[in-house]
Amino acid sequence: xxxxxxxSDSAPWLDNPISARLRIVGFVAVIFLFGLILWSALALIVxxxxxxxxxxxxxxxxxxxIGLPLIGVLLGLYGWLKVxxxxxxxxDFRPRISVPATVLGQSIxxxxxxxxxxxxxxxxxxxxxxxQAEGHTAINxxxxxxxxxxxxxxxxxxxxxxxxxxxxxEQIAEIKIAARQVSMLAREGKAQELKFIVSIxxxxxxxxxxxxxxxxxxxxxxxxxxxx
Length: 228
Hints:
Mean pLDDT: 78
Number of helices: 5
Strand order of the largest sheet: 5-4-3-2-8-7-6
Shape: elongated
Low-confidence stretches: 1-9, 141-148
Oligomer: single chain
Largest sheet: 7 strands, antiparallel
Radius of gyration: 24 Å
Distance between the termini: 6 Å
Number of strands: 9
Strand content: 25-35%
C-alpha cells in the first residue's frame, strides 16, 4: 500500500488546467495576433525594398512606413508568447465515473491525442495494460498543408477510428508522463506511439497505478510515495 505526502504542494498532476471558456478566448487571441504579425510583416516589405533597391532615404520611411509595422510585429510576438498558454496549455475534462484515488484496478477515462483524437479508457491489471478509445484520426501536418487538411476534414466527417490495445508490461518500451499527459511507446509488431490525457480528478490514481505496475515512469516523483 502507498500514500502521498503534501499532495496539494508537490503533486505533479495538479497542473492548473485551462478552462474551456478561457481556451476559446486564447484561440481567438492567437488567431488575431497571428493576423497582426502577418499584416505588419507584409507592410514592412514595400518600404524595406524601396530603401534597399530604390535608394530612398531611410528617414522618409522611418516613422510611418517602417516604424508602425515594426511595432505591430513586436507587439504581436510579445502578445502571442503571453497568450499561447491559454490556447495550447493543459486542459481538463470530467470523467464519466468518479473513483477514489486509493482504489486501484478500475478503468481510468482518457482523452487520446495520438494516433487518434477521441475518448476512451485505460485499465491496469497485475500483468497487463489495456487501452480502448474511439475517435478520429489525428491530423498529421506534412509538407502539403492544404491536402492534409482536406483529407483530415473528410476523415473527420465520414470515418471513425478505434484503438484497442492489450499489452503486457514487458511489451511496453517506454512510458513518459508530464503532469497528466502520457506518452507510451509500445512494442506491438512495430513501435507504436500512443498519447493521451487523464482528468485532473484521476491524476493521483494514474500515478498510483504507475507506481504499482510501471514505477520507472514516475522515478522523478518516487519520493512522493512511501511504502507502509
